[in-house]
Design brief:
alpha/beta; four-stranded antiparallel β-sheet; globular
């Protein structure tokens, strides 16, 4: 890894960059690339910004450092992280996870939550994340504690990780007076309104609740991020009610649908029609392959034959902005993980059949998450952008995703210590 660093600036004389992440003004067609779409460049930074990214004429096969923008995690649960040991879910079912989740609420306290969430942020930072959207259990006795701690950490980590906070409650809560007051508070704090839409349910009731939520969000200018259709049955029942609500009420704020797993159970014609309607209403989708593969499709004493997952490629083909998120880490919903974007990419490769040497496959982890979270930087490497990178000791995507490679994190042109992968 050939890198130079002073307190003022960072430079890299030789590195490999994905061609799809090169910004405007860089002659991509004139650069030699590897079979996996990696281009040789040199990088110079000044005052925390990318001053120059220059194509190199030498063979890319002779370079063993990959340069990537710091990643964006669109869906996390920092308040739940690392609670598996106290409240495990050995059966691995959705029902078991929910029961253990409620049990954990009884014991949640400020010190423990701060320690766990701070640990999660340390791992996320060392592994290469620059922004995280985390949902917070916001209904019940633990809600006030959870918001207090996450707001504290949001301020403490502001120079390293941008945190977005989503209030996760039963969808009907937003129709109550108490819920509307809480929504105003969430909006004033820069948060988003969340909720769970999970069948079976009475369709008209849920559609009315979604309409009221959209009206409330419009009034408060507050984004929406829903847990919707995290199910192995009732194909896209929640999404159908959402698009019908949007047919009646224009949304003035961004709407994101996390999970959307059962949509994949629709036949091709119905799936494509629904994807077109989601695109028309500018709805974002976050696919969550790890947790969905762990919880959904289970059959007692039988291997799963159907593994519901958001139909990523069909949604992209329809024009929907789709990101892949990591979701739960070390909790009753998913027992392992360590907030590592490269590990998420590696796991998604076989589960979702998406690859980083394809533009659509790479965008799921780079441009699409940045767009979904409305970040200032879209993740493209171009002059004038903030000098936020990760440097990976690898000469190919396959090598980078075959193990947890050594990496360095660059924030505003400043190098941070290498990741030790302490778990």
């Amino acid at each position: 890894m050939v890198a130079n660093q002073t307190e003022e600036d960072f430079s890299l004389s030789r590195g490999l960059v994905p061609r799809y992440l090169l910004g405007e003004g860089i002659p991509v067609s004139e650069i030699s690339t590897t079979d996996e779409g990696l281009c040789p460049v040199s990088i110079a930074c000044s005052n925390g910004k990318l001053e120059e990214i220059k194509p190199l004429k030498e063979s890319p096969e002779e370079i063993s450092t990959i340069v990537l923008p710091r990643f964006v995690e669109t869906h996390a649960h920092l308040d739940k992280a690392f609670t598996w040991r106290k409240t495990p879910n050995f059966a691995g079912t959705y029902e078991g996870a929910l029961k253990a989740n409620f049990e954990e609420h009884k014991y949640r306290n400020k010190d423990d939550l701060y320690t766990r969430a701070d640990k999660a942020l340390n791992l996320a930072f060392k592994n290469g994340y620059r922004a995280i959207r985390t949902h917070i259990d916001s209904y019940g006795i633990q809600a006030e504690i959870s918001w207090e701690i996450l707001l504290t950490l949001q301020k403490e980590w502001v120079d390293k990780i941008q945190l977005q906070l989503v209030a996760l409650v039963p969808i009907e809560y937003w129709t109550t007076g108490e819920g509307q007051l809480f929504a105003a508070r969430v909006s004033s704090l820069g948060g988003l309104l969340g909720g769970v839409v999970l069948p079976p349910f009475q369709m008209e009731i849920v559609r009315n609740q979604l309409e009221k939520l959209i009206k409330l969000a419009n009034k408060l200018n507050c984004g929406i991020d829903l847990h919707i259709d995290e199910s192995q049955e009732y194909p896209a029942f929640g999404l159908q009610q959402l698009v019908e609500a949007l047919d009646r009420i224009d949304s003035c704020v961004p709407i994101t649908c996390s999970h959307s797993s059962s949509m994949s159970l629709l036949d091709d014609e119905d799936l494509n029609k629904l994807a077109d309607r989601l695109a028309f209403h500018r709805v974002n989708v976050i696919a969550l392959p790890l947790t969905n593969s762990w919880l959904l499709g289970r059959r007692e004493n039988k291997s799963p034959l159907i593994r519901p997952l958001a139909p990523i490629i069909q949604l992209q083909n329809a024009g929907v902005n789709v990101a892949i998120g990591g979701d739960n880490v070390g909790d009753p919903w998913y027992p392992i993980g360590n907030f590592d974007p490269l590990a998420l990419m590696a796991s998604s490769l076989p589960i979702a059949q998406v690859v980083p040497w394809d533009n659509f496959g790479l965008s799921l982890f780079t441009n699409a998450p940045a767009k979904l979270m409305q970040l200032d930087w879209d993740g493209k490497l171009k002059k004038g952008m903030r000098a936020d990178f990760i440097l990976i000791e690898a000469d190919s995507w396959t090598k980078a995703l075959s193990k947890l490679p050594s990496r360095e994190v660059i924030v505003a042109g400043r190098k941070h210590p290498k990741n030790s992968y302490d778990y």
